[in-house]
Design brief:
By secondary structure, this protein is an alpha+beta fold. It has one domain. The protein contains two helices and four strands, in the order αββββα. The protein has a two-stranded antiparallel sheet with strand order 1-2. It has a two-stranded antiparallel ribbon with strand order 3-4. The longest helix has 36 residues. The protein is elongated, with a radius of gyration of 22 Å. The chain starts with a helix and ends with a helix. The relative contact order is 0.20.
């Protein structure tokens, strides 16, 4: 596997994890958004990933491998209902529909995405170091 292929794999992972962190941050920022432009409370979003260019893979190798975002979809779980009859957003029974965002889950997901991103930065730095060492060996 060449340096360009390994950098492309690392780049695809960095791009995917960055989007994952952006979506998670958006979910956390909207944890109390009870009314959106579409109507109703904000719905949590989730990023779906899959291997990229899998048809080009060769046995035992990673040619044309990587990861790609297939979609970002809204979570269809029902909203969280909170009894607050004084709230102008309350329904006839006095309940306000809050987003289906679980802050603890979102922060756990953010930590995992952040660690994956950092691991890929480490790989990219190692790839760069190896390339520089190879160039140095060529000058001896």
């Amino acid at each position: 596997m060449g340096l360009i292929n390994s950098l492309a794999i690392t780049d695809s992972a960095l791009t995917a994890e960055r989007l994952q962190m952006d979506v998670i941050a958006n979910n956390v920022a909207n944890v109390n958004t009870t009314q959106t432009a579409e109507g109703g409370p904000y719905r949590a979003e989730e990023v779906f990933l899959m291997p990229a260019n899998v048809e080009g893979n060769v046995p035992g190798g990673l040619a044309n491998a990587g990861v790609q975002v297939t979609s970002v979809i809204s979570d269809n779980r029902p909203p969280r209902l909170v009894y607050d009859p004084a709230n102008p957003q309350a329904n006839r029974q006095g309940y306000v529909a809050y987003p289906n965002v679980d802050p603890a889950t979102e922060m756990t997901n953010m930590l995992a995405a952040s660690r994956a991103y950092q691991a890929n930065i480490t790989v990219a730095n190692d790839e760069k170091s190896l390339a520089l060492r190879a160039l140095d060996l060529g000058h001896i």
